[in-house]
Design goal:
The complex is a heterodimer of chains A (306) and B (236). With 306 residues, chain A is α/β, with parallel strands linked by helices. Chain A has two domains: 218 residues, 3-Layer(aba) Sandwich (Rossmann fold), CATH 3.40.50.300; 70 residues, ACT-like. Chain A, domain 2 (Alpha-Beta Plaits). Chain A is built from eleven helices and 14 strands. Chain A has a six-stranded mixed beta sheet with strand order 6-7-8-3-9-10, sandwiched between helices. In chain A, strands 2-1-4-5 form a four-stranded antiparallel beta sheet. In chain A, strands 12-13-11-14 form a four-stranded antiparallel beta sheet. In chain A, helix 4 packs antiparallel against helix 5 and helix 9 packs antiparallel against helix 10. The chains are: A alpha/beta (306), B mainly alpha (236). Chains A and B meet through helix 2 and helix 3 of A and helix 1 and helix 5 of B.
């Protein structure tokens, strides 16, 4: 389990990560979602021991990163953004170097499996600078797998890839997710949705929402926006306000005889509104409902006030 | 120790992976031999004195080319992010890179062995100053490498790393030269001589191995390696 408790990191005046706490349980694929500059990379750099947080603690399986960095780092494989590798080395030289540094004694036993799993067998003897961006990511992922760490941290693993490569790398991550605990960051909502079992939305150095994908989705999907336009009828709109599930109601426009309200509700209330209109003898001219998408909520959460 | 060796291995063989090693060694040997043999047959004396006087100057311009990429490139390309999240201590990384560069320069230095061998063919030179001189050059190289590494650790631009590295080496070298000390007051002259790379080299190149001189180089190297450690620990 990765346990992060109140970590903070500042760069001069800028607070990149502001007292963030969370836990990652074994077997989860956690998507760290947020706009560029929200603090995703800095968070990941602290979890992997690259940066030391100014406040707060990080524990990997109970091992404190600040107290025992080497033991903690052994348990985490890290793929930084854009997979920065030693380009002048061959894939073979590079992976052997990483295996040396991670202190893997029986690499001939583990390397073939990793190469096959990441699809690198064919390019094993090529120089890294010769490889496409997709293969760079694969080498970067292979590097994380050496030493068989339980936790993999990947910073924007599909950024800059073409659509085919994105699908391939996503499949690879999904496959790895069967045996490993994975944390990926992304600024693309669909990616977090496609890959992760749990999503944390991070914005302006703080976590603004979190939950399992289904939890987040159910919260969001149950919310609907309803536009109601009717001949002016105060009793009717007063009645609508009292319908269970109505969260927010505001008048968006009013014509000569008509008024339009935008109603945010939990669940679909259009039937109830219709029945209310019948009871109050109101003349409805529009009843239109819109689903609130995950995208809307993401934008709402990460854009409010500046 | 084992981890340091793993870092060392990659750094050391890395020089030979690129053209840097071959260009460096070739140009260094050509220059060192040229400057030595230019005067050797004219002076007609069986001594390597001129070699030991000129080589620190050659090092001054050459060693920063070896060290300039050590951290700057890792920073520019981002590879240090993987390096620093490996289960390796920062000191292992610093020392691995340091010894990688030091052994490489030592090999280049060793390849000038044709000069003392020539001397031995021609007569019976006094080998004390020769061995002392080589040892001194080795220590100078270590100091330059530590200084060059420090310069590389404060920037992501290799050219800047080269210029700063060479400038610090030059300053520390030139402070002890007579044209500087002669213009300074006695106190400052003694101070400059004490902290200068070149003044500690004079006695070594005469064949006098003084622990104070070797201690000075070791101390200078340690100070700059510590500064490197501080810089990379801060991930500057």
């Amino acid at each position: 389990m990765i346990k992060v408790d109140g970590i903070t990191k500042r760069f001069g005046e800028l607070t990149a990560v502001d007292s963030i706490s969370f836990e990652v349980e074994r077997g989860e694929i956690v998507g760290l979602l947020g706009p560029n500059g929200a603090g995703k990379t800095t968070t990941m750099r602290m979890i992997t021991g690259y940066y030391a947080p100014e406040a707060g603690t990080i524990e990997i399986d109970g091992i404190n990163m600040a107290d025992e960095p080497i033991a903690a780092k052994k348990r985490v494989g890290y793929l930084p953004e854009n997979a920065p590798l030693y380009e002048e080395m061959t894939v073979e030289e590079y992976l052997n170097f990483i295996a040396d540094v991670k202190g893997i004694p029986n690499r001939s036993a583990v390397l073939p499996g990793i190469l096959e799993g990441t699809g690198l067998t064919k390019v094993y003897n090529r120089f890294i600078w010769e490889l496409s961006k997709g293969y760079h990511q694969r080498v970067g992922i292979a590097q994380t797998l050496l030493g068989d760490p339980d936790f993999l941290v990947m910073d924007e693993p599909t950024t800059g890839l073409d659509p085919n490569q994105i699908i391939e790398i996503r499949n690879l991550i999904r496959e790895l997710g069967k045996t490993k605990t994975i944390m990926i960051s992304t600024h693309i909502l669909q990616e977090a949705e496609a890959l992760s079992t749990k999503i944390m939305i991070i914005d302006k150095a703080r976590i603004v929402a979190r939950g399992s994908k289904d939890e987040l989705k159910s919260i969001l999907e149950s919310k609907e926006t309803l536009y109601v336009t009717a001949r002016r009828n105060d009793a009717f709109f007063e009645g609508v306000k009292k319908i269970p599930g109505v969260l927010e109601m505001q008048r968006v426009s009013s014509g000569e005889n008509t008024e339009t309200y935008k109603i945010l509700s939990k669940g679909n209330i259009s039937e109830a509104v219709f029945r209310e209109a019948v009871n109050r003898n109101a003349v409805l001219s529009e009843l239109r409902s819109e689903k609130v998408s995950l995208e809307d909520v993401f934008i709402q959460l990460t854009r409010k006030e500046n | 120790m084992k981890q340091m060796f793993n870092i060392f291995k990659r750094e050391f063989f890395g020089y030979f992976n690129s053209m840097i090693a071959y260009i460096f060694i070739t140009v260094f040997l050509v220059l060192a031999n040229f400057f030595f043999f230019k005067g050797f047959f004219i002076n007609n004396v069986l001594t390597m004195r001129s070699f030991f006087e000129i080589t620190p100057w050659i090092f001054l311009f050459f060693i920063p080319t070896v060290t300039m990429r050590l951290w700057a490139e890792e920073k520019r390309t981002g590879t240090r992010e993987i390096l620093f999240t490996m289960p390796v201590s920062e000191w292992d990384i610093v020392l691995g890179k340091f010894f990688g560069a030091l052994v490489f320069v030592a090999i280049a230095l060793f390849l000038t062995i044709n000069i003392p061998v020539t001397l031995l063919f021609l007569g019976r030179p006094d080998m004390g100053p020769v061995i002392g001189g080589y040892l001194g050059l080795f220590f100078i190289a270590a100091s330059y490498i530590a200084i060059g590494m420090f310069a590389s650790s404060i920037t992501s631009n290799q050219i800047i790393a080269y210029i700063i590295g060479a400038a610090i080496c030059f300053l520390l070298f030139v402070l002890g030269q007579s044209f500087v000390t002669i213009t300074a007051s006695p106190f400052w002259a003694r101070f400059f001589a004490a902290i200068s790379i070149s003044s500690h080299f004079d006695s070594i190149s005469r064949g006098v191995l003084d622990l104070v001189d070797l201690g000075y180089y070791a101390g200078l190297t340690a100070v700059f390696l510590f500064l490197v450690y501080v810089m990379i620990k801060k991930r500057v």
